[in-house]
TrEMBL record:
Highest taxon in the source lineage: Bacteria
Coiled coil residues, start to end: none
PROSITE patterns: JMJC
JmjC domain boundaries: 98-278
Descriptive protein name: JmjC domain-containing protein
Amino acid sequence: MAGADQGPLAGLSPVTEVTVADAAALDARLRAADAPFVVRGLAADWPLVQAGLRSADAARDYLLRHHRDRPFTVSVGQPGSGGRLFYDDAMAMNFRTFDAKLPEIFARLASFAGHPDAPTVYLASIDVHQYFDGLHAANQIDLGDREPLASIWMGGRTRIAAHNDVPHNLAVVAVGHRRFTLFPREQFRNLYLGPVDNTPAGRAVSMVDFHAPDLVRHPRFAEAVAHGLVVEMGPGDALHIPALWWHHVEGLDDFNVLVNYWWRESPRWMGQPQEALNHAMMAIRDLPADQKAHWRDMFDHYVFDNDDRVTAHIPEGGRGVLDPMTPELAGRLRGFLLRALSR
Protein backbone atom coordinates (compact mmCIF):
# COMPACT_ATOMS: atom_id res chain seq x y z
CA MET A 1 0.00 0.00 0.00
CA ALA A 2 2.30 2.74 -1.27
CA GLY A 3 2.20 5.96 0.72
CA ALA A 4 0.39 4.36 3.65
CA ASP A 5 2.70 1.57 4.89
CA GLN A 6 6.07 3.25 5.21
CA GLY A 7 7.77 5.87 7.35
CA PRO A 8 5.60 8.09 9.56
CA LEU A 9 2.38 6.36 8.47
CA ALA A 10 3.55 2.87 9.45
CA GLY A 11 1.53 3.01 12.68
CA LEU A 12 -1.86 3.02 10.96
CA SER A 13 -4.19 0.13 11.78
CA PRO A 14 -6.59 -1.47 9.27
CA VAL A 15 -10.25 -0.51 9.27
CA THR A 16 -12.46 -3.26 10.65
CA GLU A 17 -14.13 -5.36 7.95
CA VAL A 18 -17.64 -6.70 8.54
CA THR A 19 -20.21 -8.70 6.61
CA VAL A 20 -23.91 -7.89 6.40
CA ALA A 21 -26.58 -10.27 5.20
CA ASP A 22 -29.23 -7.72 4.30
CA ALA A 23 -30.44 -4.14 4.76
CA ALA A 24 -31.56 -4.86 8.34
CA ALA A 25 -28.09 -6.09 9.26
CA LEU A 26 -26.50 -3.02 7.70
CA ASP A 27 -28.92 -0.78 9.58
CA ALA A 28 -27.99 -2.46 12.87
CA ARG A 29 -24.28 -2.03 12.15
CA LEU A 30 -24.73 1.64 11.31
CA ARG A 31 -26.75 2.35 14.45
CA ALA A 32 -24.21 0.64 16.70
CA ALA A 33 -21.03 1.95 15.07
CA ASP A 34 -18.70 4.25 16.97
CA ALA A 35 -15.80 3.72 14.53
CA PRO A 36 -15.44 3.20 10.78
CA PHE A 37 -16.06 -0.18 9.20
CA VAL A 38 -15.89 -1.50 5.64
CA VAL A 39 -18.22 -3.92 3.86
CA ARG A 40 -16.53 -5.56 0.91
CA GLY A 41 -18.69 -6.00 -2.17
CA LEU A 42 -21.78 -4.33 -0.74
CA ALA A 43 -22.53 -2.73 -4.13
CA ALA A 44 -20.94 -5.39 -6.32
CA ASP A 45 -24.16 -5.87 -8.30
CA TRP A 46 -24.56 -2.21 -9.27
CA PRO A 47 -24.65 -1.72 -13.06
CA LEU A 48 -22.18 1.16 -12.63
CA VAL A 49 -19.75 -1.12 -10.78
CA GLN A 50 -20.11 -3.79 -13.46
CA ALA A 51 -19.48 -1.22 -16.21
CA GLY A 52 -16.34 0.00 -14.44
CA LEU A 53 -15.00 -3.52 -14.15
CA ARG A 54 -15.19 -3.76 -17.93
CA SER A 55 -13.31 -0.50 -18.50
CA ALA A 56 -13.15 3.18 -17.61
CA ASP A 57 -14.72 3.97 -20.98
CA ALA A 58 -17.63 1.65 -20.23
CA ALA A 59 -18.18 3.39 -16.89
CA ARG A 60 -18.13 6.82 -18.50
CA ASP A 61 -20.52 5.69 -21.22
CA TYR A 62 -22.89 4.35 -18.56
CA LEU A 63 -22.84 7.65 -16.66
CA LEU A 64 -23.33 9.66 -19.84
CA ARG A 65 -26.44 7.65 -20.68
CA HIS A 66 -27.96 8.86 -17.40
CA HIS A 67 -26.63 12.40 -17.09
CA ARG A 68 -28.72 15.51 -17.55
CA ASP A 69 -27.69 18.05 -20.16
CA ARG A 70 -26.61 20.79 -17.77
CA PRO A 71 -23.31 22.30 -16.64
CA PHE A 72 -21.30 20.37 -14.05
CA THR A 73 -18.86 22.12 -11.72
CA VAL A 74 -15.36 20.68 -12.10
CA SER A 75 -12.12 21.44 -10.29
CA VAL A 76 -8.94 21.48 -12.39
CA GLY A 77 -5.51 21.43 -10.76
CA GLN A 78 -2.10 22.28 -12.12
CA PRO A 79 -0.07 19.69 -14.04
CA GLY A 80 2.47 17.97 -11.83
CA SER A 81 0.53 18.51 -8.59
CA GLY A 82 0.26 14.78 -8.00
CA GLY A 83 -3.50 15.06 -7.77
CA ARG A 84 -3.33 17.06 -4.54
CA LEU A 85 -6.11 19.64 -4.37
CA PHE A 86 -4.75 21.98 -1.72
CA TYR A 87 -3.26 25.41 -1.09
CA ASP A 88 -0.44 27.05 -2.99
CA ASP A 89 2.44 28.85 -1.27
CA ALA A 90 0.29 31.99 -0.89
CA MET A 91 -2.55 30.00 0.77
CA ALA A 92 -4.76 30.38 -2.31
CA MET A 93 -6.20 27.25 -3.90
CA ASN A 94 -3.92 25.36 -6.28
CA PHE A 95 -6.89 24.58 -8.50
CA ARG A 96 -9.65 26.46 -10.33
CA THR A 97 -13.30 25.59 -10.77
CA PHE A 98 -15.22 25.74 -14.05
CA ASP A 99 -18.64 24.84 -15.36
CA ALA A 100 -18.66 22.44 -18.30
CA LYS A 101 -20.80 19.72 -19.82
CA LEU A 102 -20.08 16.18 -18.66
CA PRO A 103 -19.13 14.75 -22.09
CA GLU A 104 -16.46 17.44 -22.42
CA ILE A 105 -15.12 16.75 -18.93
CA PHE A 106 -15.00 13.01 -19.53
CA ALA A 107 -13.22 13.50 -22.86
CA ARG A 108 -10.47 15.45 -21.08
CA LEU A 109 -10.19 12.80 -18.40
CA ALA A 110 -9.85 10.07 -21.02
CA SER A 111 -7.12 12.03 -22.82
CA PHE A 112 -5.11 12.32 -19.58
CA ALA A 113 -5.11 8.56 -18.85
CA GLY A 114 -1.60 7.18 -18.42
CA HIS A 115 0.00 10.62 -17.97
CA PRO A 116 1.20 10.91 -14.34
CA ASP A 117 1.79 14.68 -14.58
CA ALA A 118 -1.57 15.47 -16.18
CA PRO A 119 -3.78 18.19 -14.67
CA THR A 120 -6.03 17.00 -11.87
CA VAL A 121 -9.71 16.83 -12.88
CA TYR A 122 -12.24 16.32 -10.12
CA LEU A 123 -16.01 16.56 -9.85
CA ALA A 124 -16.87 16.73 -6.17
CA SER A 125 -20.15 16.16 -4.34
CA ILE A 126 -22.46 16.19 -7.37
CA ASP A 127 -26.08 15.66 -6.31
CA VAL A 128 -27.14 12.39 -7.93
CA HIS A 129 -30.84 13.30 -8.16
CA GLN A 130 -30.28 16.75 -9.63
CA TYR A 131 -27.68 15.80 -12.24
CA PHE A 132 -28.68 12.28 -13.33
CA ASP A 133 -31.87 10.50 -14.37
CA GLY A 134 -32.32 6.90 -13.26
CA LEU A 135 -28.82 6.54 -11.84
CA HIS A 136 -29.96 6.40 -8.22
CA ALA A 137 -32.76 3.97 -8.96
CA ALA A 138 -30.35 1.49 -10.55
CA ASN A 139 -27.44 2.02 -8.14
CA GLN A 140 -28.33 2.53 -4.50
CA ILE A 141 -27.91 1.17 -1.00
CA ASP A 142 -31.00 0.49 1.11
CA LEU A 143 -30.56 2.69 4.19
CA GLY A 144 -33.96 2.04 5.71
CA ASP A 145 -35.80 5.05 7.09
CA ARG A 146 -32.86 7.43 6.68
CA GLU A 147 -33.24 10.28 4.21
CA PRO A 148 -29.67 10.64 2.94
CA LEU A 149 -28.18 13.10 0.49
CA ALA A 150 -26.74 11.01 -2.34
CA SER A 151 -23.66 12.48 -4.03
CA ILE A 152 -21.28 11.27 -6.71
CA TRP A 153 -17.54 12.08 -6.94
CA MET A 154 -15.68 11.52 -10.23
CA GLY A 155 -12.18 12.22 -11.45
CA GLY A 156 -8.66 11.05 -12.05
CA ARG A 157 -5.91 10.42 -9.51
CA THR A 158 -6.58 12.75 -6.58
CA ARG A 159 -5.46 13.47 -3.04
CA ILE A 160 -7.99 15.20 -0.80
CA ALA A 161 -6.58 16.55 2.46
CA ALA A 162 -7.88 15.15 5.75
CA HIS A 163 -11.11 16.84 6.80
CA ASN A 164 -14.30 15.90 8.58
CA ASP A 165 -18.01 16.19 7.83
CA VAL A 166 -20.88 16.86 10.19
CA PRO A 167 -23.18 14.07 8.89
CA HIS A 168 -22.64 10.32 9.01
CA ASN A 169 -21.30 8.96 5.74
CA LEU A 170 -21.52 5.71 3.79
CA ALA A 171 -19.00 5.93 0.94
CA VAL A 172 -19.25 3.39 -1.89
CA VAL A 173 -16.45 2.92 -4.41
CA ALA A 174 -18.11 2.36 -7.77
CA VAL A 175 -15.19 2.62 -10.22
CA GLY A 176 -11.46 2.41 -9.58
CA HIS A 177 -9.79 2.20 -6.19
CA ARG A 178 -9.57 4.59 -3.24
CA ARG A 179 -7.54 4.77 -0.07
CA PHE A 180 -9.05 6.29 3.06
CA THR A 181 -6.90 7.27 6.04
CA LEU A 182 -9.06 8.02 9.06
CA PHE A 183 -8.68 9.52 12.53
CA PRO A 184 -11.02 9.80 15.54
CA ARG A 185 -12.73 13.13 16.20
CA GLU A 186 -10.46 14.11 19.09
CA GLN A 187 -7.30 13.96 16.95
CA PHE A 188 -7.98 17.36 15.39
CA ARG A 189 -5.21 19.01 17.44
CA ASN A 190 -2.68 16.54 16.04
CA LEU A 191 -3.72 17.05 12.40
CA TYR A 192 -2.62 20.72 12.25
CA LEU A 193 -5.78 22.15 10.74
CA GLY A 194 -5.67 25.08 8.35
CA PRO A 195 -8.00 28.10 8.17
CA VAL A 196 -11.70 27.63 8.90
CA ASP A 197 -12.81 30.39 6.52
CA ASN A 198 -10.48 29.70 3.57
CA THR A 199 -10.88 26.03 2.72
CA PRO A 200 -10.74 23.86 -0.39
CA ALA A 201 -14.33 22.64 0.04
CA GLY A 202 -15.96 24.23 3.08
CA ARG A 203 -14.30 22.29 5.91
CA ALA A 204 -10.94 22.96 7.59
CA VAL A 205 -8.28 20.53 6.33
CA SER A 206 -5.06 19.09 7.69
CA MET A 207 -1.97 20.96 6.54
CA VAL A 208 0.09 17.74 6.71
CA ASP A 209 1.16 16.21 3.39
CA PHE A 210 0.33 12.55 3.94
CA HIS A 211 2.72 11.50 1.17
CA ALA A 212 5.62 13.32 2.86
CA PRO A 213 4.77 14.09 6.51
CA ASP A 214 7.18 16.60 8.07
CA LEU A 215 7.41 15.54 11.71
CA VAL A 216 9.76 18.42 12.48
CA ARG A 217 7.13 20.92 11.42
CA HIS A 218 4.17 18.79 12.55
CA PRO A 219 5.49 16.62 15.42
CA ARG A 220 2.08 15.82 16.92
CA PHE A 221 1.04 14.10 13.69
CA ALA A 222 2.84 11.01 14.96
CA GLU A 223 0.29 10.82 17.79
CA ALA A 224 -2.56 11.06 15.26
CA VAL A 225 -1.04 8.18 13.28
CA ALA A 226 -0.95 6.05 16.44
CA HIS A 227 -4.74 6.35 16.55
CA GLY A 228 -5.32 6.28 12.78
CA LEU A 229 -6.88 3.73 10.47
CA VAL A 230 -6.39 2.96 6.78
CA VAL A 231 -8.28 0.98 4.16
CA GLU A 232 -7.86 0.51 0.41
CA MET A 233 -11.14 -0.13 -1.37
CA GLY A 234 -12.09 -1.55 -4.73
CA PRO A 235 -15.25 -1.51 -6.86
CA GLY A 236 -18.35 -2.30 -4.83
CA ASP A 237 -16.75 -1.81 -1.41
CA ALA A 238 -18.46 0.48 1.10
CA LEU A 239 -17.01 2.39 4.06
CA HIS A 240 -18.96 3.85 6.96
CA ILE A 241 -17.42 7.06 8.32
CA PRO A 242 -19.13 8.16 11.54
CA ALA A 243 -19.98 11.84 11.92
CA LEU A 244 -16.99 14.13 12.47
CA TRP A 245 -14.30 11.47 11.90
CA TRP A 246 -11.35 12.89 9.96
CA HIS A 247 -10.58 11.29 6.61
CA HIS A 248 -7.92 11.74 3.92
CA VAL A 249 -9.09 10.38 0.56
CA GLU A 250 -7.03 9.27 -2.45
CA GLY A 251 -8.28 8.26 -5.89
CA LEU A 252 -5.75 5.69 -7.09
CA ASP A 253 -6.69 5.15 -10.75
CA ASP A 254 -6.93 7.23 -13.90
CA PHE A 255 -10.71 7.18 -13.50
CA ASN A 256 -12.46 6.87 -10.15
CA VAL A 257 -16.11 7.14 -9.13
CA LEU A 258 -17.47 7.17 -5.60
CA VAL A 259 -21.10 7.44 -4.50
CA ASN A 260 -21.71 8.51 -0.93
CA TYR A 261 -24.70 8.96 1.34
CA TRP A 262 -24.77 11.61 4.07
CA TRP A 263 -27.36 11.69 6.83
CA ARG A 264 -27.79 13.43 10.17
CA GLU A 265 -29.45 12.08 13.28
CA SER A 266 -30.43 15.58 14.41
CA PRO A 267 -33.49 17.36 12.98
CA ARG A 268 -33.01 19.47 9.87
CA TRP A 269 -34.20 22.61 11.68
CA MET A 270 -31.32 22.54 14.14
CA GLY A 271 -28.52 25.05 13.63
CA GLN A 272 -25.05 24.20 12.37
CA PRO A 273 -22.45 23.85 15.17
CA GLN A 274 -19.71 25.23 12.90
CA GLU A 275 -21.63 28.48 12.56
CA ALA A 276 -21.85 28.76 16.35
CA LEU A 277 -18.10 28.18 16.58
CA ASN A 278 -17.42 30.84 13.95
CA HIS A 279 -19.58 33.34 15.84
CA ALA A 280 -17.81 32.48 19.10
CA MET A 281 -14.47 33.26 17.46
CA MET A 282 -15.78 36.71 16.59
CA ALA A 283 -17.56 37.39 19.88
CA ILE A 284 -15.55 35.62 22.58
CA ARG A 285 -12.07 34.49 21.51
CA ASP A 286 -10.36 37.88 21.87
CA LEU A 287 -11.99 38.96 25.14
CA PRO A 288 -9.86 39.40 28.28
CA ALA A 289 -9.02 36.09 29.94
CA ASP A 290 -11.35 36.61 32.91
CA GLN A 291 -14.31 37.30 30.62
CA LYS A 292 -13.48 34.30 28.44
CA ALA A 293 -13.51 32.14 31.58
CA HIS A 294 -16.96 33.48 32.45
CA TRP A 295 -18.35 32.67 29.00
CA ARG A 296 -16.80 29.19 29.16
CA ASP A 297 -18.81 28.66 32.36
CA MET A 298 -21.94 30.03 30.69
CA PHE A 299 -21.56 27.65 27.74
CA ASP A 300 -21.08 24.73 30.14
CA HIS A 301 -24.17 25.78 32.10
CA TYR A 302 -26.54 26.33 29.17
CA VAL A 303 -25.13 23.99 26.50
CA PHE A 304 -22.71 21.27 27.58
CA ASP A 305 -23.77 20.43 31.15
CA ASN A 306 -27.39 21.56 30.95
CA ASP A 307 -29.79 19.72 33.24
CA ASP A 308 -32.89 20.46 35.31
CA ARG A 309 -30.96 22.90 37.50
CA VAL A 310 -30.87 25.34 34.58
CA THR A 311 -34.66 25.76 34.45
CA ALA A 312 -36.19 24.33 37.63
CA HIS A 313 -36.60 27.79 39.18
CA ILE A 314 -38.44 29.21 36.12
CA PRO A 315 -42.21 28.61 35.84
CA GLU A 316 -43.26 26.22 33.10
CA GLY A 317 -44.49 28.08 30.06
CA GLY A 318 -42.05 30.91 30.68
CA ARG A 319 -38.74 29.23 29.89
CA GLY A 320 -38.53 30.25 26.22
CA VAL A 321 -35.56 28.75 24.40
CA LEU A 322 -34.44 27.09 27.63
CA ASP A 323 -37.18 24.54 27.04
CA PRO A 324 -36.33 21.53 24.82
CA MET A 325 -35.78 22.85 21.31
CA THR A 326 -38.61 22.54 18.79
CA PRO A 327 -38.95 23.76 15.21
CA GLU A 328 -41.00 26.72 16.47
CA LEU A 329 -38.45 27.69 19.13
CA ALA A 330 -35.61 27.23 16.64
CA GLY A 331 -37.38 29.56 14.20
CA ARG A 332 -37.81 32.24 16.88
CA LEU A 333 -34.17 31.96 17.93
CA ARG A 334 -32.96 32.06 14.32
CA GLY A 335 -34.99 35.23 13.73
CA PHE A 336 -33.52 36.81 16.87
CA LEU A 337 -30.00 35.96 15.74
CA LEU A 338 -30.58 37.31 12.24
CA ARG A 339 -31.78 40.61 13.67
CA ALA A 340 -28.86 40.79 16.07
CA LEU A 341 -26.25 39.99 13.40
CA SER A 342 -27.69 42.54 10.97
CA ARG A 343 -27.17 45.51 13.27
